[in-house]
Amino acid sequence: MTGRREERWIVFALLLPALVLYGACFIWPTGVLLSRSVTEAGELSLVNYRELLETPLYLGVIWTTLRISVVTTVVCLVIGYPVAMLMERAGPRARILLLLAVTVPYWLDYIVRTYSWMVLLGRYGFVNQVLMWLGLVDVPYSHLSSELAVLVGTIQVMLPLMILALFAAMTRIDRTLMDAAAAHGASAWRAFRTVYLPLSMPGVIAGALLTFVNTVGFYITPALLGGPRQTMISQSIETLAAKLFDWPMAATVSVVLLVISLAILVVFNRFFGLERLAGGDR
Amino acid sequence: MLDRKEQERAARTLRKVLDDTRGQSRRQFLASLGKAAAGSALLTTFHGMLATRAAAQETAPVTTMGWGGEWDERIAAAYYEPFTERSGTPVRVIPYSTPKVLAMHEAGAMEIDFLLGAGLDTPMLIERGVTEPIDWSVVDKSALTPNQLAYGDHAIGGSTLSYVMAYNTRRWPGDDHPKSWADFWDVERFPGPRALGRYTAYPTLEFALLADGVPKEELYPLDLDRAFASLDRIKPHISSWWETGGQQQQLMEDMEVDLLYVWNGRGTVTIRDNGAPFAFMWTDAAYQGEVEAWLAMKGGPNPKGAMRILDWLGRAEPQAAFARVMYYGPTNLKAYDLLEPDLAAILPSSPQNLPQQFAIDWGWWGENFDTAQRRFEEWLQA
């Protein structure tokens, strides 16, 4: 019994640096932020939240952010799933090549990747040059400052994360189960649908969660590739804090961003169990 | 410490470099500036080695904020390094952030000694009591020109810029190019994608009113409804709304648009040094005036150092040097005696360009920025 207690103290002592860091760098500033959003002239008030709900601008920004994040997540999943599956099934050498192909762009700074898209999608960029050469367009029009450009950017940035999350889950699937399904007469499609897909769900959930929560907080990509209509939450926090010095409202919008991310986590936890993200069984 | 005599010597060195490099490119000038600085830095080191304790105290740094990258390097080359050479006082630069200045003031923990207030920051910081009045027993008023004191005892006019129209000379090589804001809005006569600034609502709203036929003398107070109605007409033809100077450069260099307005300094770097095929129209450009000014901060760590560097920063010599490297205009009009005519011709405050422009009314914007900016953001995202 005493051994158990001692062990607990050791665990606590080892965790202390992380706890202090977490408290000082996350809990405390988040608390200050929260308090700024619910006070008006020193008194407790929800006036900022009412303003947020009554201003079409903020609702529009939230809607844009959710829309871009959902589309990014879905597209990453659709593109990433077959790639991850291929990686999982490939021989050792091909697997390393594929892994490199996925991770090398991920190591490249995402600002660099975003700028590359500006070069490709610009008015006299590569895409338009090809279109002009093929005779498909004569007067080029820029593809930038559009939702499509933002999505191309966010998808490219997030795709490696999605693939790696899927791949990690797929490597844990027992391959003999698919053989067993085949031995019992299941078609390849049926074996995939009833055995492989359900077993790969932890990867799907982990990938979707990572992609969505990261995309919700994007700043540089929509700022460089998008136009005013693609303004996302982080950009409007910046506008409020640095241009209008409206810190209570900036805090309120920040809290909304935090709540969206937390809500997603709660929903996932409710339906799938977050412990599955770590690969554990329920 | 930097006494009057040393001050004069620093000014002379700069004058000499400016003279010796007349007609040379920006890069050659920068190299010469660097060499001059290296020579005297050696002297400073010897001076520092011999310094007494009292003198050593004078070498406590002065701290300011900067915009990073090339901007900081250039401003240091023209303004700070010549000061450090002579005084032994190093200048420390932390990233520019207006919210941070306000937060430091509120907390009574001011970390900076002086600041080149950007845009509306100058009047706002003075009004909120964040600045210290200038000590005219340290700062030599006679070295300044009267227009630099637009904010009385609280600020000294720094370098200035204009928001100026730039058109693609490949698209319109002849004389038939857009010449006015009405032309900018005329998409039938001058078709092609355009860009406007999103960073602030000024002076986009002014340009919209000029395009709608409001004479520049009658712009203020701005008729917001009319400005937004005018903007509604051009909105579908604006393919890009820039937020930063970097974006302005990219839009011109990649020819993303045929017509836009830019900060004249960034624009000139892009056209003159990087070869983008664009030209300026100074007619009805928006002149920023003296709003970008040097301020001494209340409660900074080195208040004496702040006054001493302010005695240097408003002078003609560093302003002329900065005009050579960043193409922003001096507000100390004596600086034009130190600049060659072809450079003066592309600066916003030069005698030939100034009368063609209108001055942004910062008094009006100070009172209406919040309303106008919010409405502008809402309009942009609608």
Main features:
heterodimer; A: 282 residues; mainly alpha; two-stranded antiparallel ribbon; 77% helix; B: 382 residues; alpha/beta; D-Maltodextrin-Binding Protein, domain 2; six-stranded mixed β-sheet; four-stranded antiparallel β-sheet
Describe what this molecule looks like in 3D.
The complex is a heterodimer of chains A (282) and B (382). Chain A has 12 helices and 2 strands. Chain A is mostly helical. Chain A has a single domain, classed as Orthogonal Bundle (MetI-like fold), CATH 1.10.3720.10. Chain A has a two-stranded antiparallel ribbon with strand order 1-2. In chain A, α9 runs antiparallel to α12 (247-271). The longest helix of chain A is centred in the N-terminal third of the chain and has 36 residues, at 2-37. Chain B is of the alpha/beta class and 382 residues long. Helices cover 45% and strands 15% of the residues of chain B. Chain B has helices at residues 4-20, 26-50, 53-58, 69-87, 98-107, 121-127, 181-185, 204-211, 224-234, 245-253, 264-273, 303-313, 316-326, 341-344, 362-381; strands at 62-66, 91-95, 114-117, 131-132, 156-157, 162-168, 194-197, 238-242, 259-263, 278-287, 293-297, 358-359. In chain B, α4 (69-87) packs antiparallel against α13 (316-326). The longest helix of chain B is centred in the N-terminal third of the chain and has 25 residues, at 26-50. Chain B starts with a helix and ends with a helix. Classes of the chains: A mainly alpha (282), B alpha/beta (382). The interface between A and B is medium-sized, with 30 and 25 residues.
